[in-house]
Amino acid sequence: MVPWVVGSNPIFHPNMPQLIDIQLIEAIQKTGFAPTCAKLNLFEPLPFEKMYPYKKARLVDCDGDISKRWYIEFYAWDVQQDKLLRKRFYEINNLDTIKDRRAYARRIIGEINELLKDGYHFDLNKVPEEIVTEEKRGYSLNEAVDHALEIKKPSIRSTSYPSYKSSVELFKFWTAKNRISQLDVVLFDKLRAVYFDDYLAVQCGFAAKTINGHISYLKSLFQLLVDREILASNPFRSIKKHKESASRKNLAFSPEQIVKMKDILEEKDPLLWLFIQFIYYCYLRPNEIRQLKHSYIQLGEKQIFIPAHISKNGKDGYVTIPDTFYQELMQSKEFGLGQEYVFQSKRSKSPVSKNMMGTRFHNLVKGLNLSQDYTLYSWKHSGVVAAYNAGVDIKTIQRQCRHHSLELTDIYLKSLGLGVSQAMNRIPGL
User: Angle at Cα 102 formed by Cα 99 and Cα 105, nearest 5°?
Assistant: First the structure.
């Protein structure tokens, strides 16, 4: 039995075939039939143009046999041929169940008959002026998310696209499982979005962070459909985030661990140690560091320019080179090699590979029996902890982290176990 929610549209159970709410269909009919006009080449009569004869639309359902080809049939006046012309509409066969086909047929037949009653007809001479654009046509649920992803693709980083693509494929798998792939996208409402959210949590068993990520990507894609007036509202907009447990990944190193690793790295891999110092002092991400060019490093101003195309947030930015790190750079034999990239491949004039430094770090320190919660990126957290404990103010940490707000920096500091209690301990005595 399909559950009913008071004050809302009927919704489907995740393990049951989709049913379509007739009241919602009727509401959609009143908003305009442009997609139907485009599909059927029906055109509105001009002012004072005469009304044309027609025969109402009807469903030919082959006695309920969905293995056969169903269609909707109607007759409209053809101005050029000066007679009634029969038109058959076969899109109904995209739906998989009798109930879905009949519900869809009721909507389309209702739209067609309203148009015919208002004098809509066939007129090839009107096609160039009144043809509906691609953005205004009707979309099935799967067509809509694919369309949104194509629109989104040019504006996102190449590293982000696979995540969007993964969320779309997962969503399409779910729509197919529940036989709503061909559902008109305007019928997909918040409660159906909630059922997808439930599917991620219950049947997929994903962690809260993973679920929130998938929902975030889909919310972004559905907003594109809203912006292009394909949808009136975003069904994912008010989905509540799942509470995420505190992550233990990339834990900050203890002072004792840092001393041990420094001794190993300075002796066995000084280039990797230089790489780590960019993380520790400047809070740069490993993927940003490997793409750093010498031209981005402004030693006179003691700052580093991070261009948008290598920055994770897609924005230009600057970070400060602390005096301690500045002295290290001036003395480093690994830094001034006269090449384009600070960390350049030996085989080509390109940056070192993406995972190269992470792998080298892991191999060098594996003898210290560190857990998998410690990674190369742990050096950033270690640097922030050291700066905070040394009395560096939160505004300076915010700028160096390139956070867009102090609130975000405050959340970040709390995730590292840093807070007001430690700051209070630095108040001098009377």
Answer: 150
Beta bridge partners of 317: 306
Closest CA to 368 of 226, 259, 227, 236: 259
Question: Are the C-beta atoms of residues 354 and 360 closer than 8 Å to each other?
Answer: no
Spacing of C-alpha 43 from chain mean position: 38
Q: How far is CA 106 from CA 25, 72, 91, 102, 188, in A?
A: 9, 10, 13, 6, 18
Q: CATH for 141-227?
A: 1.10.150
Coil/strand/helix, residue 194:
helix
pLDDT tens digits for range 204-214: 888 888 899 99
Using alpha carbons, select from 180, 255, 183 the residue that is nearest to residue 17.
180
Q: Which 8-state DSSP code applies to residue 50?
A: P
Q: Indicate where the chain has its CATH 1.10.150 domain(s).
A: 141-227
Q: Is 3.10.180.10 the CATH number for 255-423?
A: no
For the stretch 318-345, pLDDT in tens is 999 999 999 988 888 888 767 899 998 8
Predicted TM-score (pTM) of this structure: 0.52
Judging by DSSP bridges, how do beta strands 55-60 and 317-320 pair with one another?
A: unpaired
Q: Rounded CA gap, 252 and 49, in Å?
A: 77
Kindly report the number of other CB atoms within 10 A of residue 142's CB atom. 18
Q: 349: which DSSP letter?
A: S
Whole-angstrom CA distances from 240 to 208, 334, 373 are 11, 49, 28
Q: What are the residue ranges of CATH 1.10.443.10 in the chain? A: 255-423
